[in-house]
Amino acid sequence: MSLPFQSAVVLGAGLMGRLLAVTLARAGCKVALFEAGSADAEGAAARVAAAMLAPLAESAVAPVSVVRMGQHALGRWPELLASLAQPVFFQREGTLVLWHRQDAAEASRLARVLANTGAQVPELTPMQTLDAAAIATLEPSLGQRFAQGLFLPGEGQLDNRALLASLLATLQASANVSLHWQSPRAPADFSPGTPGQPDWVIDCRGLGAKPQWNALRGVRGEVIRVHAPDVTLQRPTRLVHPRYPLYIAPKPGNLFVIGATEIESDDMSPASVRSTLELLSAAYAVHSSFAEARIVEIAVQCRPTLPDNLPAIRQVQPRVLQVNGLYRHGFMIAPALLDATMELLAHGHAALARSFGMATSDNA
Ligand SMILES: Cc1cc2nc3c(=O)[nH]c(=O)nc-3n(C[C@H](O)[C@H](O)[C@H](O)COP(=O)(O)OP(=O)(O)OC[C@H]3O[C@@H](n4cnc5c(N)ncnc54)[C@H](O)[C@@H]3O)c2cc1C
After folding, report:
1. Which of 157, 303, 313, 327 best tests ligand 1's pocket when mutated (most atoms within 8 Å of CB)?
2. Which of 34, 328, 333 to probe ligand 1 with, by most ligand atoms within 8 A of CB?
3. Which of 121, 133, 144, 329 is the most buried (most CB within 10 A)?
4. What's the gap between Cα 109 and its chain centre?
5. Distance 171 CA to ligand 1 centre (A)
6. 174 located within any domain
7. What is the 92 CA–ligand 1 centroid distance (Å)?
8. Angstrom distance (rounded) from CA 247 to CA 106
9. CA of 8 to the centre of ligand 1 (A)
10. 132-141, 220-229, 244-253, 284-293: lowest mean pLDDT where?
């Protein structure tokens, strides 16, 4: 893709900032990336996420536009990952949804919502209803513990920390990129388009953009990482729950990410006892060998969220673009936002973004 400008500043080296910086640099643009924290992304929601890529499962809480972005992204991740400096674990082994007998009514409601999504988005692979034997065939280590379940074929997941590290290595190897750590910035620190200044500022600061985008809010999530050599799960497993969908996402090296609470709050204090009990109980109920797992980390972050819970690409002043509101689906939709942003920057129109039903400003 050729760009009608030569240089850009990207603010925020979380998920969206790193992806955009790599893509802009590859298109021949000189990129300066400013991050408030360090190269470890310790302040980014992206570091804590489970990074499940589950458009149909997420349609329980997300509209069809987000599902379409997720489907687009599932197809795009393999080529994006293949172009990076280091390998990143990625799989599409589907999502397993399970429930306990007492949550059967909630599970029926969920099945109806997913069936309705399937009818609206025909390109989704249809879900399958499972009995105990079919669950045991998919995940032998779960035995006959659950009487019923749903299988959502083709859904994916990736290793978020490997992705952040690989994007970093790719940026470090690029002659077009300068990296600035411990360097918080705001769009007002630049005068894009004037002599000696970048042509564009792309603001990907997640919740850090709140001073300039007042409607942003945090939705707190807590996740627990455990090392469980005695547990084998092939794919992310979701447990129907009255308050929020709980999941166990297997990662390489017998690591499992157990998450995630969803609490309307910017609170970044440590995880509560209640959340920790809920998450660990859910894991133990799915597989009793989690009893002997070792807790590696209990992490908290807030998801950057707009009032409609939808992502947006916004231009409120010339040559400054804000990409934000990735909420709980950042990894699931990031390639769709990346492609829509690049289209806007390269061609000044947002046909792709509109095809997803996304809020944007054209003529960037
Ligand atoms: C518990 C939890 C579980 C999740 N699970 C999933 C999942 O399974 N699947 C999925 O798709 N998504 C998931 N997400 C969502 C995903 O992590 C986010 O949507 C995504 O990380 C948002 O990306 P971002 O780049 O907009 O923001 P972030 O990743 O938060 O990055 C923003 C960056 O900007 C930096 N910054 C802030 N202020 C400044 C400043 N003034 N100057 C410079 N830099 C600044 C921050 O330090 C940070 O590095 C989860 C999130 C959480 C919290």
Report:
1. 303
2. 328
3. 329
4. 25
5. 18
6. yes
7. 23
8. 16
9. 21
10. 244-253
189 CA distance to ligand 1 middle (Å): 22
CA-proximal residue: ligand 1, atom 1 (nearest): 221
User: 203 with 284, same domain?
Assistant: no
Residue 53 included in any domain: no
- Distance between CA 129 and CA 114 in Å, rounded? 12
In this structure, what CATH number is given to the domain that contains residue 114?
3.30.9.10
Q: Does the model's pTM come out above 0.90?
A: yes
Residue written as token pair 């469980």: 228
Burial (CB count <10 Å: 0-12, 13-18, 19+), residue 94 = buried
Domain that holds residue 226: 92-155+217-305
151 and 109 together in one domain: yes
The per-residue pLDDT of the chain, averaged, comes to 95
- Residues contacting residue 99 through CB under 8 Å, at least 6 positions apart: 106, 107, 146, 148, 149, 239, 240
* Residue 277: other Cβ atoms inside 10 A: 10
Task: Show which of 287, 305, 323 is a domain's final residue.
Answer: 305
Gap from CA of 2 to ligand 1 centroid (Å):
28
User: Cα–Cα distances in Å, from 226 out to 128, 238, 242, 254?
Assistant: 29, 16, 24, 8
Phi, psi of 259 (to 5 degrees): -155, -170
| Domain contains 352 | yes
Does the pLDDT at position 364 exceed 50? no
Nearest atom of ligand 1 to the alpha carbon of 223: 1
CATH number at residue 317: 3.50.50.60
> Which residues sit with their C-beta closer than 6 Å to ligand 1?
11-17, 34-37, 41, 43-46, 48-52, 184-186, 204-206, 208, 221, 223, 259-260, 301, 303-304, 324, 326-332
Q: Does 207 share its domain with 221? A: no
Report the separation in Å between the CA atom of 307 and the middle of ligand 1, taken as the mean of its atom positions: 17
66, part of any domain: no
